[in-house]
Amino acid sequence: MDTMTLWHLTGWEFAALAFAALLVGFSKTAVSGANTVSLAIFAAVLPARASTGILLPVLIAGDVLAVLTYRRHAHWPTLWRLFPAVGVGVAVGTLFLVWADDAVVRTSIGVILLLMAGVTVWRRRQAEAADASRASDAYEASDSSEASDGDGTSSRSGRVKARSYGVLGGFTTMVANAGGPVMSMYLLSAGFRKLGFLGTSAFFFLIVNVSKVPFSAGLGLIDGRSLLLDAVLVVFVVPGAFLGRWAVKRINQRLFERLVIAATVVGGLQLLLT
């Protein structure tokens, strides 16, 4: 019995999953948050709960490729600040999955993603307005332009923000593999530039997604049947990662940020409408 028969997939459904796997590779090396589209495709083609377990190894394959590509650009102080809060979020998400049905999961994650996108857009407009009001002060303007490595997370308010986003990121990544947009919003709001953003998120999701495997297996979301389908789909992640690596060199910072936010909004709407 082949994989398509095992999961009762038509040719078009398998093609959709293959495209979603390719998009995972692209999102991991170019536009983080775009894999929410992959999440929606997996949930549409497969049973929603089962889709989260099948998608997880595909995401891990993309994470490995992203780490190999951007490993020199990770900002580890930010990662260490996030991990404790993320652990809390993963634990809460595991408990949530015990009783929540598919409709509740989709609605909850969709609302969170749209809220995070809205908050990030508001924060960035506030920051741009503040920068414009200081434009006459050359020193302050120069200092503002260098806020590219996440140093804005070291203040007390920054630590509170890191914990809040960390819990939300852990929760959303556990219940629907949808932590990417939440963490994208956090890294953008912390002032990360393109390569620092990609390097930090690559290590973050590799570590977090690998740590989720025992929880997903314990919930019955990962088994031999799901891994068989993963073995086929992972092949499509590789060309997506190379496409993303090619594309990211041709995307400027402002366009990059807009694409990340747009992907987050699209993913959130898809979760609410499916």
Describe the fold and architecture.
With 274 residues, the protein is an all-alpha fold. Helix content is 81%, strand content 0%. The chain is built from 13 helices and no strands. It has helices spanning 3-6, 11-29, 35-45, 48-70, 76-99, 102-133, 138-145, 156-176, 179-189, 194-218, 224-233, 237-248, 253-273. Helix 3 (35-45) runs parallel beside helix 13, helix 6 (102-133) runs parallel beside helix 9 and helix 9 runs antiparallel to helix 13 (253-273). The longest helix has 32 residues, at 102-133.
- By DSSP, the count of extended strands is 0
Number of helices in the DSSP assignment: 13
Shape: globular
Class per helix and strand makeup:
mainly alpha
Give a quick account of the main beta sheet: strands, pairing sense, barrel closure.
Answer: none
Roughly what is the average pLDDT, rounded to an integer?
80
Q: What is the percentage of strand-forming residues?
A: under 5%
The N- to C-terminal Cα distance equals 30 Å
Low-confidence stretches: 138-149
Give the fraction of residues assigned to helices: over 70%
Write down the secondary-structure element order: HHHHHHHHHHHHH
Rg value: 18 Å
Keywords:
274 residues; mainly alpha
Task: Summarize this entry quickly.
With 274 residues, this protein is mainly α.
Tell me the layout of helices and strands.
Layout (H helix, E strand, L loop, with lengths): L2 H4 L4 H19 L5 H11 L2 H23 L5 H24 L2 H32 L4 H8 L10 H21 L2 H11 L4 H25 L5 H10 L3 H12 L4 H21 L1
